[in-house]
Fold:
Amino acid sequence: MKKLILLGAQFRLNFSSNVFFVLQCTLVFLLANSTVSSILYGGFVGRYYTNLDKDRTFFLSSAVDNHVAFADSEGFYRLAEEISAISGVSGVGYQMEESFLAGKNDDTIVRGLILSGDMAKIQYPLSQGRWFGSGDDAGGQTQVILGGEIAGFYETGEVATLYRLTVTDEGMQYVPVEARVIGKMRAPAFALSLNYASTQPTYTDMFEPYHSLILTDDLSLICTDDVRFPMLSLLVFAERRADLQAVREELRRYGQPFDFNEVDQFYDAAISFRLANQLPTTGVMILGILFGVAGITYLGVYQNMKSIAVYHLCGMSRKGCAYINVALNAAMMVVSLLFAFLLYCVPSVQDYLFRRTMFGTYNLLFSAAFISVVIGISFLISYGFSKRSPVLTLRRFE
Amino acid sequence: MMLIELKKIDKIYRNGQQSFQALKEVDLSIREGEMVAVQGKSGAGKSTLLHIIGCVDSFDGGSYLLDGTDVGKLKDRGLARIRNQKIGFVMQDFALVPKLSVYENIAVPLYLSKSVRLREIRDRVEKAAEDVGLASQLHKLANQLSGGQKQRVAIARAVVNSPKIILADEPTGALDAATAGEIMALLKKQNERGTTVVIITHDDSVAGSSGRIIRMKDGKILGSQ
Structure:
C-alpha cells in the first residue's frame, strides 16, 4: 500500500506527460493491433471453412451472371438443376439472401443467408451449439444459427421469433416465424459471398464480415415473390468417385471453375504479396513506435530522477529506484491497454479501424510483447540512471 | 560507544584512463550522541566522506563500521535499509520533491520503511512537522515554501524515522544568517535528544557550535579539535 502511494505520487509529479504517455500508448495499441490483425486477417479467413473437401468442391465463377437474366428466379433454379445433373456432380451450393426483423431486436433488419441443402454441408466455425443436420431436426421446426451482435440476444436452444417479408393481399408485410436457435457462429461472423466472381478467387475476397447474421437451411423462409439469388457464382460439389477433370470440363460451359486447392494457391500468393507489401512499412512503423516509446520513457525517467534520488537517500535501493519507474510505466501501459480495449468496443472505432479485423491470441501476444519491450526499455534506462550517486543527481537537477 | 568507525578509507574516482583519489586512508571515529563539524576547502573530500558515511557511495579500501555493522559487506538492499533506519540527510539544496506536499515529503522515509505501519505515518509526520514548526504547512507543496521552511521540512524528514545519525551537507549554505541560526538550533535540539549529527560546513560559526571540528585537506583528515 505504501509503495502504491509512492507510485501515485510519481504519477502526479509528471501528470501531463504521463497522461500524454497513456494516450499515446492507447493509440499505439489500437493502431498496432489493427495492423497486426489486418496482416494476419487472411490467415484466419483461409481456415474459416472447417470441413471443406478442397479437391471436390468447385467455385464456379460467373456461372449465374452468364446464364441467368436479371431477377429470373426460375432461370436460376433451372441453372442449378442443370449443373446438378452433370455426370459426376453431387450437388450445387448456393444461398439466398433475405432480411429479417429479429424479435428481441425488432428495430434492426438482420441479413439472413438461406443455405441450400448442399451449401449447408460446409460448416462455419461455431462458438456454441451445432451445425445444420448434425443433431435432431427439432421436429421440423425452422433452425437458425446466429452470428455477430444478434447472437448475444438469444441462447442456444431458445425459440426466436423472426419476421420475414411476405407478400399478402395488403402488400409486403413482415410475418412472424418461429425458429429454434441451434448454434452461434464464432465471432466475428464471416460468410462466403457468391455475389463475387474472379479469375483468381481468394478467401479474403470471398468472405464477407457481418455485423449480425442469421443462417438457416429452411428455403421456405425466402420471400418467393422476391427471391434474392446470388448474382455471380455457385459452389459445385463433385461425387467421391467422379472424374474431376471431366467435371471441370463440363463446368467450363457455365463459368470458370476453380477447385479450392487452386483457391488456396491464389490465396497464398495474395497473402505473400500482401505481407511483402505491408511488412516493411509495418516494421518501420513498429520500430518508430518503439523509438518513440524509448524516447518518452527516457524523458519520463529523466524527469523522475530528482524524486528518485530523494527516495534513494531516504532508503530506497537502486533496484527499487529502477523498479518504481518500471512499475509506473507498466501501470500506465496496462491502463493504456484497458483504454484501447474500451475504445475498441466503441462502434465508430470498430467501424473505422477494425471493420475487417479478427482479434485473437496473436493480439494478446503482440500486446504482451509490446508491454514487455517498454518495461524492458524502462528498466534499462532507469537502472542506468540509478547507478549514479543520488547526491550528484540532486545537484545536477538543482 | 562508537557509532561510526572509519579505518583507512580510500576513495578513488575513475573516469576512463584518469583517476582521482578523493580520500586517502581516512581514519575517523564518532561516538553516539556527538555533534561533529567537518571543514575544509573545496575538493578536500568532505562531501565524499559524508556520502560514504551515509552509505550512498562505496569506498575502495579500508573498513567502515556503522553501529557495529560492517558496511563494506552490505549489498544494495542492506545499504538502503541502513539509510532508511539509521540515517537522516539534510542537504544544502534541501533535496525535496518540489511537487509533493510537505506532508508527503516528510513521509517518504516512512513509506519506504518496512517497520512502520500505514496508520502510524500520519501521527509521526505531524509530530515531526510540529517539532520543526511546520504543523500548519503540511498541505502546502514543497515548492511553495521559503528556503528556511524547506530546510525545516528536510530536517523533519531526516528525523521522522528516528535515525541515529543526521548527516547535514552545508545545511545553512543557502540561507540567510537568521534562518541559518534557526536551522542550527533545530539540529542542536536533535543532538540534545541523543541523535548524532555530522555537519559539513564552510561556516565557522556553524562549526563553532558543534562539539568537535574535523579539518580535511586533499582527502586526508588533518586533525580534530
In short: Residues 2-46+270-397 of chain A form one domain. DSSP finds eleven helices and 13 strands in chain A.
